[in-house]
Amino acid sequence: MKTVLIVDDEEFVRLGLKSLIDWKACGFQISYEADNGEDALTIIQNQKPDVVITDIRMPVLSGLELIEKVVNEIDSSPKFIIISGYDDFSYAQQAVRYGVSDYILKPIEKAEVESILIKLGKQIGEENEIEMLGAQVNTDNLFKRLISNVNSLELDKQSMRDLRIKEKNNFFYLLFEFFYIEDFEYSDIQISSVIQAVIQSTEMIPMYKHERGLYGMIVNSDDLISFENERALFFAEMKEKLYAHTNIELGIYAGDVVEELGKIKRSFSEAMYAKNFTFTNIQYQVFDYCQISFKELTYTELDERIYVLLMEHIENNNQKQIINLIEEIFHTFSEKYFAPVAVTASINRCIHGVVSTINTLKGDEKRLELLERMIHWHQVKLSPNEVKKLLIRFMLECGLYIVELRKQNAKGDIHIIKQYIDRHFCKQISLKSLSSEFYLNSVYLGQLFKKTYGIYFKDYLLELRLNEAKKQLRLTNKRVYEISSQVGFGSTDYFVTLFERKTGTTPTEYRNQTIKNQKNEEMI
């Protein structure tokens, strides 16, 4: 609410103005009163009201003299509205010369004053915004100079004041990053006011906006006095208050203390380095360079075994295993200090793998509701914890879709698979290799084969191989170990054992018996 000072030597005029106008509706409140120009000048100097409504003719200091003194002696002067009972052109001329906003003749009209106040309120708001933008540009330039300067940087006293910096003090750079920036609707001023409350400062806290949702500030060692100089307490309080105000998760990253402001670039670089540890503690999200400077980040992807296992769980739609494995993945990110670029590469590979499987099954990836959000998770700036939750939901969605695609494709595929087995049974094939070849779950494939052909896959494969072995024993002179290898058995002993179990004779006995039978037939 903007403030108003009413100046008039007649009390009934002041009372009349207070009761006549709907101040609140116009965006103002009467905060101060004076019955002479001298008292009014003191109030303006100390309290800085937004608008002064003054009579012209008053004792000690007239209205115009008051305006002249304010314009000449005070840097930031309020808006003036003159109320007079005299329609005097010379007064109006002087008022214009001093930049008076409006000149109202008595008797006062309610609608006229309210119209003027609404207009002034809008004008003050626009001017304040321009002033704040100008101040922010100046602050931004100071921050840029400080965090990009390699050598020591001297600042004038005004610049030091603009940054709330005291001489002979220690400093450190602090970054705080709001996640979910697509929903971020808070202004820099709102954020600054929350920090102001945490630090218990009487001034607005200058901040630098590195990018949307990421802010930086220079912290004086004095700011930690109320926290017994405990950085951890200070960070926890700031995180708690910012979250309470915005209801948005955030991370805090701090550089080490420097003794001179000219060295703040080092502390800034340390805070940026600490930001790389965001996936190493997805619950707490406070990273102090002093606590992590000795730790080395990992820039490689996950172990190949993880990708293979994840795809198996997804293709089998093992939901519990999917969840457990993704939990394990994020535990690995934390335990091995994965840098954000390594996390992004690892997650993108998981996404690419499952989408490739869906495309192979002739599925439409656009049917995946979470795909777009999953692909762009790093642009939205999700918190690490929310990234994990999103990845779990996405992979579970993919598992269900793959089951649906397999059911659609299964009837036609099983006959193609049988033809494939009939042609390639001599090779090393199994349900696992077939499931990989045809993108079907191995357990489901075995069940479907038995249901369709009335025989288990393993028995059917054995039957094909033994029939081929019998054929070669009858028609060729190949040795038993050669036939064993050529029909798909890795071990000759295993082949002989199975052959005898199924036929009641060894391969050699089978061959000899076949030759004997052929000779008997020839004799007849």
Automatic annotation (TrEMBL):
Originating species: Lederbergia lenta
Q: Main localisation, per the record? A: cytoplasm
Compartments (UniProt record): Cytoplasm
InterPro entries in alphabetical order = CheY-like_superfamily (IPR011006), Homeodomain-like_sf (IPR009057), HptR (IPR051552), HTH_AraC (IPR018060), HTH_AraC-typ_CS (IPR018062), Sig_transdc_resp-reg_receiver (IPR001789), Tscrpt_reg_AraC-type_HTH (IPR020449)
Q: Which Pfam families match?
A: HTH_18, Response_reg
A GO MF label = DNA-binding transcription factor activity
| 4-aspartylphosphate found at | D55
Q: Which residues form the Response regulatory domain?
A: 3-121
**Gene3D superfamilies, from UniProt?**
3.40.50.2300, Homeodomain-like (1.10.10.60)
Name it: AraC family transcriptional regulator
Q: Which residues form the HTH araC/xylS-type domain?
A: 415-513
Q: Which GO terms describe its biological process?
A: phosphorelay signal transduction system
